[in-house]
Specification:
With 299 residues, the protein is an alpha/beta fold. It has three domains: 110 residues, Potassium Channel Kv1.1, Chain A, CATH 3.30.710; 59 residues; 97 residues, no CATH class. 51% of the residues lie in helices and 9% in strands. A five-stranded mixed β-sheet has the order 1-3-2-5-4. Helix 6 runs antiparallel to helix 7 and helix 11 runs antiparallel to helix 12. This is BTB domain-containing protein.
């Protein structure tokens, strides 16, 4: 008995217009009708495809428009093309969509698409860091692994829950993430205020005896730094030292006892400046810690 012919499906708007001059056929047999001129502007790969000599192409069954088969599925290609067309950029629905479109954009050398997709990637990395890290490991994407690893510092690994994606990574990938967390916790929690330099700028440094420098600052600064250090042992990110609990303690212990509104406002302004610089210093020092990735990732 002969095999049944493959069933081809027409794409939805806007890739179903009759005035297209090429069809992109996906791996799941969906035909997306597009304009060569638009893709040429968006991708040097497509531009070369249209201008360089090519083997005889398939043609559509109805109107003879040339057909180019691609390896992406319809969902990924539909998202990718919408970034190229003069229309509102799509919001990628899942982190899997982000990775798929990102890899397609790299394949077709669509730099402008990569910029927007990476912006959406950051959103998912911050919302689902461990899951994002695991998927990046499975795909061998080093830059995305590092971004997701840094985002994961906001929650202790011990508090993570089981997820399907983590089951697919190697023990080595998880151990490297754990070692990265330990290194970041160590340097962030040892970060101390060392006074001001000759220009008046505050100086921060990670050192074992950083608490010795606390004798040079007001007691409430010292109290804040000690509390922040303990918190950074759990969540080594700049946002940790800006938590509401620290602000509340400052308001009660320092602002509350002061009589004049001027003194209160001045103290609050100093605290906001100090804590913001502290947060920036935390971010700088953890950025100096790199997630270790082997030269060749074994999946």
């Amino acid at each position: 008995m002969a095999d049944s012919p493959e069933v081809l499906v027409a794409a939805t708007f806007p890739f179903n217009k009759a005035n297209s001059d090429v069809v992109l056929r996906t791996c799941d047999n969906v035909d997306l009708r597009v304009r060569k001129a638009i893709l040429s502007e968006a991708s040097v790969v497509f531009e070369d495809m249209w201008t360089l000599p090519q083997p005889p192409a398939q043609t559509g069954p109805d109107d003879g428009v040339p057909v180019v088969s691609v390896s992406e599925n319809e969902r990924t290609l539909h998202y990718l093309l919408r970034f190229c067309y003069p229309m509102e950029n799509p919001n990628l629905k899942t982190v899997e969509d982000v990775f798929a479109v990102m890899e397609a954009a790299r394949k077709y050398m669509m730099d402008h698409v990569l910029i927007e997709v990476k912006r959406q990637f950051l959103h998912y990395a911050e919302r689902e860091p461990l899951r994002t890290y695991a998927i990046a490991c499975n795909r061998g994407l080093e830059e995305e692994m590092r971004i997701a690893a840094k985002a994961s510092l906001l929650e202790p690994l011990a508090d993570s829950h089981e997820m399907e994606e983590l089951e697919r990574i190697t023990a080595g990938a998880y151990l490297r993430l754990s070692a990265y967390h330990r290194a970041c916790r160590k340097v962030a929690s040892s970060l101390g205020y060392c006074g001001r330099d000759k220009t008046g700028r505050r100086v921060w440094a990670a050192k074992k005896d950083w608490r010795d420098s606390l004798v040079n600052i007001e007691p409430w600064w010292a109290s804040y730094m000690i509390l922040a250090s303990e918190a950074l042992k759990i969540r080594p990110r700049g946002t940790t030292v800006l938590k509401e609990e620290f602000v509340h303690k400052f308001l009660v212990d320092v602002i509350g006892p002061r009589d004049s509104q001027y003194e209160k406002n001045k103290a609050l302004s100093e605290f906001a400046e100090f804590s913001a610089e502290f947060a920036e210093a935390v971010e700088r020092i953890i950025s100096s810690i790199q997630l270790k990735i082997p030269l060749k990732i074994t999946l």
